[in-house]
Design goal:
- It is a single chain.
- With about 260 residues, the protein is an alpha/beta fold.
- The protein has helices at about 5-10, 30-35, 55-65, 80-90, 100-110, 135-145, 155-160, 160-170, 180-185, 200-210, 225-230, 245-260; strands at about 15-20, 40-45, 70-75, 95, 150-155, 175-180, 215-220, 235-240.
- Helix 2 (about 30-35) runs parallel beside helix 3, helix 3 (about 55-65) crosses helix 4 and helix 5 runs parallel beside helix 8.
- The longest helix is centred in the C-terminal third of the chain and has 20 residues, at about 245-260.
- It is globular, with a radius of gyration of 19 Å.
Length: about 260
């Protein structure tokens, strides 16, 4: 039986949420994050990693040891198949990438929501982990309904149609919007824009519009000190740090410290 989605419970209670990213395709990582007990969920950056269906199952089982809900971020191509595979493994949230039009949001909704007249999705009953104990349609529907629906808002075309995109997101039940400055600049042919002060008015517009349409904005940062500006803008949901960079930073600190001690020996 899949554990209740505590990530969903936080959102429904109006609480701020805190996640962290992991890119390493190893079930030990979500187990470790869950054991820490400080994060509401962890996001597996499948878009930047390698995995198969069996590994998704192992990750979800490991995360459940620490009652840690998992989100998966996917490449646009094939994300329908892999989103459903992740939900079947026991993931609690999907982050869809490369949203360009309101129609893209409708397509994502259909992928993860139930094929019932009330819900209007396209997902039928799949006898994977959420349904292994028994065939219980009511609990299966409740499990699907608890999935946290998140989308990237990162393309210039989506920002140009911001009101229409966010109105559709609200009506489709999107829980959170993740601003993506890297792809935004890339889509304009300006790959370095994310590091330029010129991107701040766009970022602030996206955050303000998300709040206006009552779709919670989420921001990715590397360090807690970066959160204050976004808190002042009304953001209450953060995903902080990437395991690969955390490891690199820690190993650099340790290595440099030891080298300085050894260089005069």
């Amino acid at each position: 039986m899949i554990q209740p989605n505590s990530f969903r419970a936080c959102l429904d209670a109006g609480k701020p949420t805190l996640g962290t990213h992991f890119l390493t395709a190893d079930p030990d990582i979500p187990e470790l994050i869950g054991d820490i007990g400080l994060f509401d969920y962890a996001e597996f950056g499948g878009e930047y990693s390698t995995f198969d269906m069996a590994l998704l199952y192992h990750m979800a089982r490991a995360a459940q040891c620490g009652n840690l809900p998992l989100m998966i971020k996917l490449d646009q191509e094939g994300q329908g198949f892999w989103a459903q595979a992740a939900l079947g493994a026991g993931f609690a949230s999907v982050l869809f990438t490369d949203i360009r039009t309101p129609g893209d949001i409708i397509d994502c909704h259909r992928v993860i929501r139930a094929d019932t007249p009330e819900v209007g999705g396209a997902l039928g009953v799949k006898l994977r982990r959420p349904a292994l104990k028994s065939y219980a349609p009511d609990s299966y529907l409740a499990n699907l309904g608890s999935v946290v629906f998140t989308v990237m808002l990162e393309k210039a075309t989506a920002v140009d149609a911001l009101d229409e995109v966010l109105a559709t997101a609200r009506d489709a039940g999107v829980d959170m919007v993740q601003w993506g400055p890297a792809d935004y600049g890339f889509s304009l042919g300006k790959p370095g824009l994310m590091f330029d002060e010129a991107i701040r008015p766009v970022e602030e517009k996206v955050i303000a519009k998300c709040l206006e349409y009552q779709v919670a904005p989420r921001i990715e940062i590397a360090e807690p000190e970066q959160a204050r500006r976004y808190i002042d803008l009304g953001v209450r949901h953060f995903c902080v740090g990437w395991d690969r960079f955390i490891l690199q930073t820690a190993m650099t600190r340790i290595g440099e410290g030891m080298r300085s001690l050894l260089e005069d020996l």
